[in-house]
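To whoever is on call:

I kicked off a structure prediction for a single chain this morning and the downstream step that reads the tokens threw a length-mismatch warning. I double-checked the sequence; it's 196 residues and nothing unusual in it as far as I can see. Pasting both halves so you can look.
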Amino acid sequence: MVKQEETTQQEAEKTEETKADSQPRFQEVTFSAEEIRFEEANKLIANRVKWAMGVGLVPIPIVDLVGLLGLQISLVQSMAKMYDVPFKENVARSLITSLMGSIIPVFVAAPVTSLLKAIPIIGQATGAVSMSLIGGASTYAVGKIFVQHFESGGTLLDFDSKKMRGKFKEKFTEGKEVASEIKASEAAEAKDKAGK
């Protein structure tokens, strides 16, 4: 009887092992707080790029520029909060303006593009499209530069905009591509919706 119980117990153990082997095994993936924060910061940037593109479509000259700067300051403020970095609006405004100055042709073109909106129909359409892309690209660049700086332990007070200008130009170029992709994606979605 004891031998029969041992055999039954062994068979039960083998059955459990077979069940365990036949079921898929998933490895638990964990992310560090820093990885999660970095991912959240990038989601915030992507969201604000879309907002900035929308602000660029505002038909009133100069109002779009004011709105864009406000949006970018708000982006830096949100990221500063994520990274537990003290925030001062006047410092953020100065840093963003300095970075924008590093892309001089675009920085000068932005007010001109904004003013194009004062010309009925053609000027409004041209200005809106251009400001939308400039707004999206510059917001992307501002976000990426500040994430990089905050990730390295930096603050607003030790941010050297002159040293970051080259990197900002690179990120602005990337941002133009991102904004163009967003615009194309939204146009395709609108076309699909219209076709249904």
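Update from on-call: the warning came from a stale cache, not from the record. Cleared it. Sanity check on the structure: Residues 104 and 110 are 10 Å apart (CA to CA).
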